[in-house]
Fold this sequence. Notes:
The complex is a heterodimer.
Chain A lengths: L6 H11 L7 H19 L3 E8 L2 E8 L1 H20 L7 H17 L4 H20 L4 H32 L12 H13 L7 H6 L5 H23 L4 H19 L3 H22 L2 H32 L15 H14 L6 H15 L3 H27 L13 H19 L1 H6 L12 H23 L10 E2 L3 H32 L1 H12 L11 H22 L1
Antiparallel strand pairs in A: 1-2
Chain B lengths: L1 H6 L6 H21 L17 H24 E2 L6
Amino acid sequence: MIDGLNPALILIVGALLVPLIPQPSRRVYVVLLPLVSMLQLILHPSGTFGEISFFNMTLQTFRLDGLSFVFGLIFHIAAVLGVIYAIHDDDPIHPTAGLLYAGAAIGAALAGDLVTLFVYWELTAVSSVFLIWARRTESAFKAGMRYLIVQVGSGVVLLAGVIILFSETGSVAFNEMNLDSIGGKLIFLAFGIKCAFPFLHNWLQDAYPEATASGTVLLSAFTTKLAVYALARGYAGTEILIWIGAIMTAFPIFFAVIENDLRRVLAYSLNNQLGFMVVAIGIGTPLALNGAAAHAFCHILYKALLFMSMGAVLLRAGTCKGSELGGLYKSMPFTTVCCIIGAASISAFPLFSGFVSKSMIVSAVAYEHLTLIWLMLIFASAGVFHHSGIKIPYFAFFAHDSGIRCEEAPLSMRVAMGITAALCIGIGVFPGALYAIMPYPVDYVPYTVAHVITQLQLLMYSALAFTVMMLWKIYPPELKSTNLDTDWFYRAAAPAIIKPISAQVARLTISTQQLIAGTATIGLAAFHHLLGPQAKLSRAVDSNAMVALVTLTLSIFLLLYLVLS
Amino acid sequence: MKDKKAENTWFDKPANVKKIIIALCIICGLLMIADFFYDKHAHFAAEEWFGFYAFYGFIMCVLLVLAAKVMRVVLMRDEDYYD
């Protein structure tokens, strides 16, 4: 352990060296690097370090406390598992971008001030897009561009919020904030974009299924959970989060039922699981915040496991479409078992990880007597079992035999899946270890008779509903299709309106340019009049207005680019 | 050869699939009976109703699927819609 050394820096600097190291040493290096940095995190004492004075701001680049430790730790574990999963692939892009991305996420989680947070926030965007582009297809490239615009856009909004907050309070410390000021609202919005709030969510379902098999595993771990961390740090107890979260748990499951691409189904259920954490942050009691942190921890593992199993299917069977899969348990028995363990964990079956963390959140809701929220959460619990717990393993590995016969997943993928599956069961059976690292002391017993029976009733009767609907052929079959979501507005509607207008503008621009060229002399005199030392446009303008103007201009530029690209 | 051997697995026999369904029904039945035998420390009135979680899970899942089928009518497009 080196005192005061930020583990994120170990990862970021180390990641940049990855392409320089030849195989086979690279395989060892990429696994050792996050392990070394994880050790640095675990052994380091709590406190704030890495203070930098910057203009008249004080930056705390490394803050280690209960909350940042949980997220720093699970991000490290996800990084190790993600690079192990990708070892079979000689392409250095996965470990390089993946470890850089992990380092950025860890740096952001350990940031004690909002400026440092912003820097790492943008680095997660820029590094992670390579995991999508690594697919090297036209549609992955386009999806990557859309993803990048949304992610960088969230950073721009964050920066604007930070600047306004700084001008109001004179501090950039990253602590509790509120929605009273414009700055607070903008930062909240920036977190909300990355957390895939309803109507801001669709970048997730758009981009994640376009990434490579290994890319999606890494993507699923960091960005959204960083946003969960940021919300827990900045907006715990903000009541509106309870409603935002409850809607997030419910609406994606409808899309998940009819979606054909199984990795996109998982992206919808990722969104649904984030909802549970957001509700807990909105409640803001110690039990709820522990629940959010514990659920983020478990969720990263079982979601990675599910994406790993579907990635293995994509690699071996060449597709992840439910309509083309089926009967793969014959070819990929190990992957099948791991997928089922992931499915049981996300469904919160007793003895699997999701049970011990989701129970905390549902209990926190119950203690506050929020009836409607509680009903939405248990509906969402049944729904997530329905599509992630049953639909994913059923249509990929069982259902009707598609006739696809392929190899089992490569060794590196099986090792990663095996470890992740063991962790999912380990946490479910021995929740004490997880509870011990929570930000607040845990006084919670997940395994009571009432909890276990009610949860089993909920799940088994959901399974019964699925079975009955399959037998009576009510259940919608998997169909080759695209389902419209909010991305329709910027991928179809807006271009249809704006493209003709932009063509007109382009034509106008050309004529205007000719006009200007003809009247250059007059123009120059006019510019001097407007912009000269005594002119109107040269006077000093309020810095808040300038920030707003720059943000607006950038946002319009990003939006236009998104629509026209 | 390997493929042929793989064709006749346990799950391929309709009788075995039936066994799974029967097992599921038995488990569901037992869970309903279990409702009599534990102490419900309810936070909401609904939790005290007999078999609330079971009925709620079943009914909401059916409604979920029916609603999703309606959504399909409105939202479903060709696979290459955006291309």
